[in-house]
C-alpha cells in the first residue's frame, strides 16, 4: 500500500506539481531522447532545466512498470487470474528494478557532465 501511495503521489505531482515536476514540462518523444543521448555520447550533452529527455523516459518507464507491478500484485492478492498472473507479477519486477538502475545511473552520468548536484536538486526542488 505504501508503494501505491508513492506512485499515486508522483502521478498527481506530475499533473499539478511545480513546473519542472509536471509531465508537460519534460515528457518528450523518442526522437528527443535519441538526440539527448547522442549529445551525451559526443561529450557535449544538451542542458535542460528540470528533467532531460532520457531522465523523463526513465520516469515514464518507472511509473508504467510500477503501475503494472501494483496492478498484477493486487490481482494476485485478490486471487484473480491464477498462477500465470503470479508469474507475470514476478517477471514485471525485473524491468522495474532495471528502470531503477537506469535512473540512478542516469543521475550519476548527468551529475558528472553538468556542474550540478542532481541528488540535492531532487531533495530540495532547487
Describe this structure in words.
The structure is a single chain. The protein has 126 residues and is an all-alpha fold. It contains six helices and no strands. It is elongated. It starts with a helix and ends with a helix.
Shape: elongated
Q: Could you give the distance between the termini?
A: 29 Å
Structural class: mainly alpha
Oligomeric state = single chain
Total helices: the number is 6
**What gyration radius follows from the Cα positions, in whole Å?**
17 Å
Helix coverage percent: over 70%
Q: What integer is the average pLDDT?
A: 83
Poorly predicted residue ranges: none
Q: How would you spell out the order of helices and strands?
A: HHHHHH
Largest sheet: number of strands, sense, barrel closure: none
Number of strands: 0
What is the strand content? Answer: under 5%
